Amino acid sequence: MIPTRRSSDGMMSRRFRARGSPLPVEPDFAVSALRRCALFRLVDDACLATVADNLRVRRYRRDQTIFHQGDPGDSLFVIESGVVKVVLSQREDNEAEAIIASLGPGDFFGELALLDGHPHSASAVALEPTRTLALQRSTFLDLIDTQPALRRALLEALAAELRRLTGHVEDLHFLNLPGRLAERLVRLASEAAPGQRRDVRMDWPYTQSELASMIGGTRQSVNRLLADMTDRDLLYVDRDTMVIPDIDRLRREAER
What we know:
By secondary structure, the protein is α+β, with helices and mostly antiparallel strands. It is built from nine helices and eleven strands. The two termini are about 25 Å apart.
C-alpha cells in the first residue's frame, strides 16, 4: 500500500503565513540555487547577481496553496527544496482537480502568467514543506529583454512543457488506466534518477487520490492497481520512498 501523507501539525508557525513568508536571501546561496535551475543555468554571472539581488525566499507548509487558478501572476518561482503540484480545478467544484505537473528542486513555475499578463491558468500547492525563490515580474521581464541565454532557456522550457502536455493527452487518449499508471510511474522515476534503469528510489509525497488525479482515475482503482503491481514485484514502498526494481519492465506494462 502507498503511504498517505501525514496530517499537518496544529498551529502553523509564524514563518508559514497564509501566502508564504517573503524573506531576503543570501546572494551566494541564491546563485547556487539558480545554477541548479535549467532556466538560469547558462546565463552569465552578472545576470545571476542581478537576479539574486531581487529574489525573496518564500516558505510554504505541507498542503499550502502558493497561488490559485485565476490569481494575477506577479512572480516567477524557483523551487529550492520540497515538491509542488500544479493542478486544474473545476470552477464550480474546487474539490475536483487534475494534477498536470509535479515539480521538485530546480524546477520553476508561474512563468506563463508573467509572460502574457493573464491570471494563472492553474493552481500551485506545496505537497510537503517547500522553500521557493520568488522573482518579481518587472525584474523577470527586464532580464528577458536583455539576456539572450535566458530567452533561449525559456523557449526550451516552454517547448518541453508543450511536449510533456502533448504526451499527457496522448496517454489519456490511447492508454487504458493500468497503462497510464505505469507510464506516469516510469516518468516520475526517470525524472528522479535520469539514466538509471534498476532499483530507482524516489521520494513519494503523493496520496493515492493525488496519483489518481494525475492519470484520470479514482483512488479506489489506483489502490487496486498499485496492490497488483506490488504483488508482481513491479514496485514497492519503503516508508516515504517508492522503489522501481526495473524501469524497462514497468514500461512494458504501459505498452501492453
